[in-house]
Amino acid sequence: MGYKDSPKRIGVLTSGGDAPGMNAAIRAVVRSGIYRGFQVFGIRRGYEGLLNGDLYEMNLRSVSDIMSRGGTILQTARSKVFNTPEGVKRAARMAEMFKLDAIVVIGGDGSFRGARDLSKEGVNVVCIPATIDNDIGSTDYTIGFDTALNTVKDAIDKIKDTAFSHERCSVVEVMGRGAGYIALNCAIADGAEACILPEKEFHIDTDIIQPIIGCRNRGKHHYIVIIAEGVGGTMEIAKQIEEITGISTKATILGHLQRGGSPTVKDRVAASLMAVKATEVLANNDGNKIIAMKNEQYIAIDIDEGINMKKYIDETMIETSKMLSL
Ligand code: F6P
Fold first, then answer.
1. Which residues contact 83 (CB under 8 A, 6 or more apart)?
2. Within a domain: residue 187?
3. Per-residue pLDDT reduced to its tens digit, 204-225
4. Please, is 213 exposed, middle or buried when counting C-beta atoms within 10 Å of its C-beta (0-12, 13-18, 19+)?
């Protein structure tokens, strides 16, 4: 069968930083897409693969046994070439060459901006939010966030065991270049004495040293300080805490282990429901949408509108974290 005689043809790609649950989303795009009568093509390495025409037809069995795996079977990339107007045009041309009626983009805000640019070149796109940072304005939830929180929680629990034994302060850097959602949630979940977010200015005396000394005076003997990656200077902060307070202080940078691991139930279910919503949009001959979770409902938002939506750190959570670590 030639391209022209095909039923609706959709591509699916994962782009940007990987997130646990991306495989569950790929699986659900493929299975629900085929269920709806589409041909589904996996595009390897995100937009880089689209630029190179690196795609293959997927079938029901292409996505067997992948849901429990972290990462993405399609692999991912941050394409420099695609990030130019010429790159976007070339990618759109490739989508046309392969007669793709739509592309499902699974990724974060950078990937969504790429999808929006493709839509301006006539490619129909549907975006599924997946990033451990949960920093996409249009949706309450992004795939991978819950798994990352649990990974960080497990790591900090372990660090806390040794901080207790040695009566130390542990400074833990968690991911979040521009967003403090992982840091703040784990500060509450692990009872951190201080938590520093990229969204807020901070001063070491008032935001770290005073809370630690206050806690010491109220009878605490070990302390957890969480720093979001975007704040920077984690090692220096640890050094200063030790110098100023005299408390033995160790720093741990959790790094990319936060991006891996088998997705939690929450991430598998969110990924499956978002992906099914994405193919529903396409089955209705609609498109250029972002799939979002709002008040526990899955909805489709216009991509131009969704991309401009903002999300803010919840001040109540900041206050709660401080209050409960007294
Ligand atoms: O996926 C989001 C994120 O984890 C950020 O929090 C982090 O700053 C970034 O990705 C790092 O990604 P990479 O090292 O793959 O460029």
1. 114
2. yes
3. 999 999 999 999 999 999 999 9
4. middle
Task: Tell me: do 238 and 138 sit in the same domain.
Answer: no
Q: Is 293 in the pocket of ligand 1 (CB under 6 A)?
A: no
Edge-to-edge, what's the strand order for the sheet holding 297-302? 55-58, 39-43, 9-14, 102-107, 125-129, 289-294, 297-302
Q: Is 11 in the pocket of ligand 1 (CB under 6 A)?
A: no
Same domain, 169 and 212: yes
- State the distance from the centre of ligand 1 to the C-alpha of 190, rounded, in angstroms: 22
Q: What residues are annotated to the active site?
A: 133
Residue 195 shares a structural domain with residue 231: yes
- Average pLDDT in the chain: 96
If asked whether residues 71 and 135 sit together in one domain, one would say yes
Which residues are bridge partners to 297 per DSSP? 294
Q: What is the pLDDT of residues 146-200, one digit of tens each?
A: 999 999 999 999 999 999 999 999 999 999 999 999 999 999 999 999 999 999 9
Same domain, 128 and 140: yes
Decide if 238 is inside a domain. Answer: yes
Q: How far is the CA of 17 from the centre of ligand 1 (A)?
A: 6
306 CB less than 6 Å from ligand 1?
no
pLDDT band at 6 (very low <50, low <70, confident <90, very high): low
Confidence of residue 14 (pLDDT cuts 50, 70, 90): very high
Residue 3 clears pLDDT 60, i.e. is over it: no
Out of 80, 229, 234, 254, give the residue to mutate to test ligand 1, the one with the largest number of ligand atoms within 8 Å of its CB.
Answer: 229
Atom of ligand 1 nearest to the CA of 230: 8
- For the whole model, what pTM was predicted? 0.96
Residue 180, ligand 1, Cβ within 6 A: no
In this prediction, residues 298-318 reach a mean pLDDT of: 97
Q: What is the pLDDT of residues 258-290, one digit of tens each?
A: 999 999 999 999 999 999 999 999 999 999 999
Distance 139 CA to ligand 1 centre (A): 19
CATH number for the domain harbouring residue 290:
3.40.50.450
Domain with 241 in it: 147-259
